[in-house]
Amino acid sequence: MTSISVSYKEFHGTTCKPAMGYSFAAGTMDGPGDFDFTQGTKSGTAFWDLIRNLIKTPSKELSDCHSPKPILLATGELNLPVPWQPHEVGTQILRVGNLFIVALPGEFTTMSGRRIREGVQEVIRSNKRYGKRTAAPIHVALAGLSNTYTSYIATPEEYELQRYEGASTIYGPLTLPAYVNQFRKLAEALVLPNDTVHVEFVSACPRNDVRQNGTFLTVEYFDEQRGEWVVRFTDSDWETKFIWKRGGPIHTLLGQSTAVIEWQITSPDGMCLPGLHRIQHFGAAKPPFSSKLRQFQGCTKEFLVTCGR
Question: Where does Zn(2+) bind (predicted)?
């Protein structure tokens, strides 16, 4: 989260190395700190600066980046025995249907949480696939204190006041806009439509053989190391669709139908799957005036999947 360029609405700049401000030591109304620290402090004192400098004198770059926060602990420049506060932060959104769970790595203020949720909702609702084309409501839930702990996250306006939450916002005044941008990117990646492979086969009624413990389709890739085709997906995977179309009356009379197979080019974790692929279809035909089934299969031409944005 350090040195990240931020351009969000009226906010422009970069995030800072971690640091804690004077008002952090003042505590909150329901849990005040010790000594003479008070909330809303925007300038240090000679005494506490001296104590601070015995531990680590903050660099001018760090002090300027965190302004108007007076730095009490330059945690981003303290690395013994380990870094005092994280420089890299894991971010995460979990999606279950139309529920998007945003894993917040710290304590977000009420308004910070609202801006995160609004940013994620805006991305989802503006997406043609999951926003405009779905009547189902979109739910965004915030799960705080997830994964890495990064203290408080205040809005830039709250940061300017330098009360406890602002002084405890460790990556500077642009911390929240950086998180908003990051979670918007994650939300976009979750709802970004992937390319879909669409193929059609001349087929037969799937009720002829429901293929218990089998499949109507396979998506296969060529394993160059093994020198053979390997099944990647079947009709039991979310990434595939098997659609049977009977056709018109003449087609029904002649026993003709079509099987449509669709494969959304992605893995269960949302990653692209490059390489040489093919799709096979399996069915069973029933000749006229006979109960004996004739198994058949069809295969597409090989096609190459490449990944890029």
Answer: 107, 152
